[in-house]
């Protein structure tokens, strides 16, 4: 009596449902995207908190820019220097970038899919660039205000000059602090995304190597499983 065995892994897969390998692909390409090693609830909470901070920064910077622009109607003599940031438009287009990136970050925290994380990552990179440009504008504004303060005593209305300069310095200083905070937040979100990608790549590389060492195929099929093997006996 002779026996001949035929491996029928595909049959076992169709009868027993999807293989573990297919579940791994669904986790990678589907709904949930793991950021870092650790509790997922904590990671989502951190993302939502960072996104809310970005939205709040954008709203406050927009409000400060509107208030700074309204001061120019008090006098037309000093507006070219004391309202430099307002004329660059940074409080408006900067706020749009910050609110948009914050909204995407909050959405990625609630449902961290790969598409949302990629969009949030790209928007945060753009917001970091905008925050850097805004930091330059605000620093130049403060430097110009310092020089203009020296000529306030020789102006026609020194009291108004000092009042406008002080108000402008205060508003611009607040915007500078919020811009630096925004820059730190966008960098933090981008670092979390990059570390999550590195961690996912290492897991993808280590899983096939461990399966090869143990003699088990990467898809989790077992040649000794009676459900995946046909035994044909002939005489």
TrEMBL record:
Which family, according to UniProt?
A: Belongs to the MS4A family.
Q: What is this protein called?
A: Membrane-spanning 4-domains subfamily A member 3
Name the PANTHER family for this protein. Answer: MEMBRANE-SPANNING 4-DOMAINS SUBFAMILY A MEMBER 3, MEMBRANE-SPANNING 4-DOMAINS SUBFAMILY A MS4A -RELATED
Pfam families named in the record = CD20
Q: Which cellular component terms (GO) are annotated to the entry? A: plasma membrane
Q: Which UniProt keywords apply?
A: Membrane, Transmembrane, Transmembrane helix
Recorded topology in the membrane: Multi-pass membrane protein
Under the heading InterPro entries, the entry gives:
CD20-like, MS4A
- State the residue spans of region: Disordered: 1-30, 201-235
Q: Which residues cross the membrane?
A: 49-70, 90-109, 121-144, 174-195
Tell me where on the tree of life, at the top rank, the source sits: Eukaryota
Q: Compositional bias (Polar residues) at which positions? A: 1-12, 201-212, 223-235
Where in or outside the cell it occurs: the entry states: Membrane
């Amino acid at each position: 009596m002779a026996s001949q065995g035929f491996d029928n892994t595909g049959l076992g897969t169709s009868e027993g449902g999807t293989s573990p390998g297919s579940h791994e692909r669904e986790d990678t390409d589907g709904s949930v995207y793991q950021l870092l090693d650790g509790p997922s609830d904590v990671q989502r909470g951190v993302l939502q908190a960072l996104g809310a901070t970005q939205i709040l920064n954008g709203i406050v910077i927009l409000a400060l820019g509107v208030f700074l622009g309204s001061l120019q109607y008090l006098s037309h003599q000093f507006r070219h220097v004391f309202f430099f940031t307002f004329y660059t438009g940074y409080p408006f287009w900067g706020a749009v970038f910050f609110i948009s990136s914050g909204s995407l970050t909050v959405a990625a925290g609630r449902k961290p899919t790969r598409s949302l994380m990629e969009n949030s990552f790209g928007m945060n990179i753009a917001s970091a660039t905008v925050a850097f440009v805004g930091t330059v504008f605000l620093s130049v504004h403060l430097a110009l205000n310092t020089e203009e303060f020296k000529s306030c005593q020789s102006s026609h209305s020194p009291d108004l000059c000092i009042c406008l300069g002080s108000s402008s310095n205060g508003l611009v200083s607040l915007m500078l602090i919020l811009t630096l905070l925004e820059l730190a937040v966008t960098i933090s979100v981008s670092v979390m995304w990059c570390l999550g990608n590195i961690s996912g790549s290492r897991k993808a590389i280590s899983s096939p190597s461990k399966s090869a060492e143990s003699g088990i195929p990467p898809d989790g099929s077992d040649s000794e499983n009676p459900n995946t093997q046909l035994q044909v006996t002939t005489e």
